[in-house]
Amino acid sequence: MSLPPTPRRRAPIATAALVASATLLAIATTGCAIQPPHPWEKGALARPEMTMGGDVLGDRFAQHIYTSKENASGGNGVGGGGCGCN
Questions:
Q1: Is 49 within the bounds of a domain?
Q2: What is the extent of the structural domain holding 54?
Q3: DSSP states along 14-83
Q4: Which whole-number Å values give the CA distances from 41 to 35, 36, 50, 51, 78, in the listed order?
Q5: Of 20, 41, 62, 67, which has the most beta carbons under 10 Å away?
Q6: What would the pLDDT profile of 34-56 be if each residue is shown by its tens digit?
Q7: Which pLDDT tens digit goes with each residue over 10-29?
Q8: Rounded to two decimals, what is the model's pTM?
Q9: Does residue 82 belong to any structural domain of this protein?
Q10: In a domain, 22, yes or no
Protein backbone atom coordinates (compact mmCIF):
# COMPACT_ATOMS: atom_id res chain seq x y z
CA MET A 1 0.00 0.00 0.00
CA SER A 2 1.45 3.37 -0.98
CA LEU A 3 1.00 6.67 0.77
CA PRO A 4 -0.84 9.52 -0.93
CA PRO A 5 1.43 12.08 -2.58
CA THR A 6 2.34 15.05 -0.43
CA PRO A 7 1.17 18.41 -1.75
CA ARG A 8 3.87 20.68 -3.10
CA ARG A 9 4.49 23.81 -1.11
CA ARG A 10 5.61 27.13 -2.47
CA ALA A 11 9.12 28.22 -1.78
CA PRO A 12 9.34 30.79 1.05
CA ILE A 13 10.92 33.30 -1.33
CA ALA A 14 8.03 33.00 -3.77
CA THR A 15 5.52 33.47 -0.96
CA ALA A 16 7.38 36.53 0.34
CA ALA A 17 7.53 37.99 -3.17
CA LEU A 18 3.80 37.44 -3.63
CA VAL A 19 2.99 39.12 -0.32
CA ALA A 20 5.33 42.04 -1.06
CA SER A 21 3.88 42.61 -4.52
CA ALA A 22 0.31 42.47 -3.19
CA THR A 23 1.20 44.97 -0.46
CA LEU A 24 2.85 47.35 -2.91
CA LEU A 25 -0.12 47.11 -5.26
CA ALA A 26 -2.52 47.91 -2.41
CA ILE A 27 -0.44 50.92 -1.33
CA ALA A 28 -0.10 52.18 -4.89
CA THR A 29 -3.81 51.99 -5.67
CA THR A 30 -5.04 53.59 -2.46
CA GLY A 31 -2.77 56.61 -2.38
CA CYS A 32 -2.64 57.77 -5.98
CA ALA A 33 -5.77 59.79 -6.61
CA ILE A 34 -6.35 61.51 -3.29
CA GLN A 35 -6.62 65.21 -4.06
CA PRO A 36 -8.46 67.95 -2.22
CA PRO A 37 -11.52 69.36 -4.00
CA HIS A 38 -11.00 72.27 -6.35
CA PRO A 39 -12.53 75.65 -5.43
CA TRP A 40 -15.30 75.26 -8.02
CA GLU A 41 -16.23 71.86 -6.58
CA LYS A 42 -16.69 73.12 -3.03
CA GLY A 43 -20.05 74.70 -3.86
CA ALA A 44 -21.51 71.29 -4.70
CA LEU A 45 -20.08 69.82 -1.50
CA ALA A 46 -21.64 72.58 0.63
CA ARG A 47 -25.23 71.80 -0.43
CA PRO A 48 -27.58 70.74 2.37
CA GLU A 49 -28.09 67.35 0.72
CA MET A 50 -24.40 66.57 1.22
CA THR A 51 -24.40 66.86 5.02
CA MET A 52 -23.68 63.76 7.07
CA GLY A 53 -26.65 64.18 9.38
CA GLY A 54 -29.28 64.66 6.73
CA ASP A 55 -32.36 66.54 7.88
CA VAL A 56 -31.30 68.97 10.61
CA LEU A 57 -34.84 69.85 11.67
CA GLY A 58 -35.84 66.18 11.80
CA ASP A 59 -32.74 65.31 13.83
CA ARG A 60 -33.47 68.11 16.29
CA PHE A 61 -37.09 66.96 16.62
CA ALA A 62 -35.99 63.36 17.23
CA GLN A 63 -33.55 64.58 19.89
CA HIS A 64 -36.34 66.57 21.55
CA ILE A 65 -38.58 63.50 21.65
CA TYR A 66 -35.73 61.37 23.05
CA THR A 67 -35.00 63.95 25.74
CA SER A 68 -38.68 64.17 26.68
CA LYS A 69 -39.01 60.39 26.93
CA GLU A 70 -35.90 60.08 29.06
CA ASN A 71 -37.15 62.90 31.33
CA ALA A 72 -33.70 64.43 31.44
CA SER A 73 -32.44 67.75 30.23
CA GLY A 74 -29.73 67.41 27.63
CA GLY A 75 -30.31 63.70 27.06
CA ASN A 76 -27.06 63.10 25.19
CA GLY A 77 -24.77 65.96 26.23
CA VAL A 78 -23.34 65.99 29.71
CA GLY A 79 -23.70 63.31 32.31
CA GLY A 80 -26.50 63.51 34.81
CA GLY A 81 -30.15 62.72 34.85
CA GLY A 82 -31.83 66.09 35.02
CA CYS A 83 -31.62 66.34 38.79
CA GLY A 84 -28.77 68.86 38.59
CA CYS A 85 -26.09 66.54 39.94
CA ASN A 86 -23.47 66.24 37.23
A1: yes
A2: 43-74
A3: HHHHHHHHHHHHHHHHHSSS--PPPGGGHHHHTSGGG-SS--HHHHHHHHHHHHHHHT-TTTTSSSS-SS
A4: 12, 10, 12, 15, 37
A5: 67
A6: 678 788 888 887 887 777 776 77
A7: 677 888 899 999 999 988 88
A8: 0.29
A9: no
A10: no
